[in-house]
From TrEMBL:
PROSITE patterns: HTH_LYSR. Pfam families: HTH_1, LysR_substrate. GO terms for molecular function: DNA binding; DNA-binding transcription factor activity. GO terms for cellular component: protein-DNA complex. This is LysR family transcriptional regulator. It comes from the Bacteria. Keywords: DNA-binding, Transcription, Transcription regulation. InterPro entries: LysR_HTH_N, LysR_subst-bd, WH-like_DNA-bd_sf, WH_DNA-bd_sf. Gene3D superfamilies: Periplasmic binding protein-like II, Winged helix-like DNA-binding domain superfamily/Winged helix DNA-binding domain. Residues 1-58 form the HTH lysR-type domain. Belongs to the LysR transcriptional regulatory family.
């Protein structure tokens, strides 16, 4: 039993014939008869009976047709409620981001969406491996995720829009011998100790690419995911590291140098399930994320 079948029964009670119902609903009489048969199979008592050439409702059919009015009213009320929810500009929007993206984007979002009639943000940090970003879209409306330039794209189960294509530079203390160079090659940095992320995180693939281009394994001295902590470790002489050019605040004791010979870029993408952007509030936040990306890029 579904809404369409109940409506057909209700119309049959009012119009008195299958042909009239078919004309009213813009379908064929055979389609109406088929739906009535399906509805009858779900009922323990007859819903219709023949009176001459006419098909009329039995007492049970009339009772169910009356209930159909209540069902249609409830469904219409539900549709109206959903429509109001979808069109609300001030609905809550949950956003998750990995740490450096959160540090760069969250303050800009909070300031730009501070008006009382705008979306209400619910922000969260999520330091996960690249493969674990898409599942987060079950829990959050928008997920800021990162992947390297040459890695596979996101699965079709999510919609992705690129906010930034950000260079990854080599970070070192300002007094490091390599700091005098304007640009570095894999051979320049191959003999240095390195600070990099744990397995499964995108930056590690660029470290592997540097090693391949230099023709030797790099010495990984420390494994640290959080770039703010990485910056302090680099400043203390713990080794070189790859650092994002725009989303990290400049550290007074460090310099960043671009790297040639490998694809040292990452994408910062906004992931979401397709149905999430049916809500006006989510679309508003997505627009603000793109605007914030332009501001972040302009700092470089």
């Amino acid at each position: 039993m579904d809404e369409r079948q109940l409506r057909i029964l209700r119309e049959l009670g009012e119009l008195g014939s299958v042909t009239a119902v078919a004309e009213a609903l813009l379908v064929t009489p055979s389609a109406i008869s088929q739906q009535l048969r399906l509805l009858q199979r779900a009922m323990p008592v007859p819903l219709t009976e023949r009176q001459g050439r006419r098909l009329v409702l039995t007492d049970a059919g009339q009772a169910l047709a009356g209930a159909a009015i209540e069902v249609e009213t409830a469904l219409e009320r539900a549709r109206h409620t959903v429509a109001e929810f979808v069109d609300r500009p001030d609905g809550e929007v949950s956003v998750a981001a990995f740490h450096s993206a959160g540090s760069a984007f969250f303050p800009l979002l909070l300031r730009s969406l501070a008006a009382p009639d705008g979306p209400r943000l619910a922000l969260a940090d999520a330091d996960v491996t690249q493969d674990d970003f898409p599942p987060l879209t079950r829990e959050y409306d928008l997920v800021l995720a990162h992947r390297l330039e040459h890695t596979p794209g996101w699965p079709r189960t999510v919609t992705a829009t690129t906010l930034l294509r950000e260079p990854l530079d080599v970070a070192m203390p300002a007094d490091h011998p390599l700091a005098v160079k304007r640009r570095l090659t894999p051979r320049d940095v191959a003999e240095q100790p390195w600070i990099t992320a744990h397995d499964g995180f995108p930056v590690l693939a660029t470290i592997d690419a540097i090693a391949t281009a230099a023709g030797r394994r790099l010495h990984i001295a420390h494994r640290i995911n959080e770039f703010a902590v990485v910056a302090e470790a680099v400043a203390a002489g713990g080794g070189l590291a790859l650092m994002p050019r725009w989303t990290m605040r400049p550290h007074p004791a460090l310099v960043l140098r671009p790297l040639s010979g490998v694809q040292a870029w990452r994408h910062i993408d906004a992931l979401h399930r397709p149905e999430r952007t049916a809500r006006k509030a989510v679309r508003t936040v997505l627009v603000e994320l793109h605007r914030a990306a332009g501001t972040i890029r302009g700092r470089g």
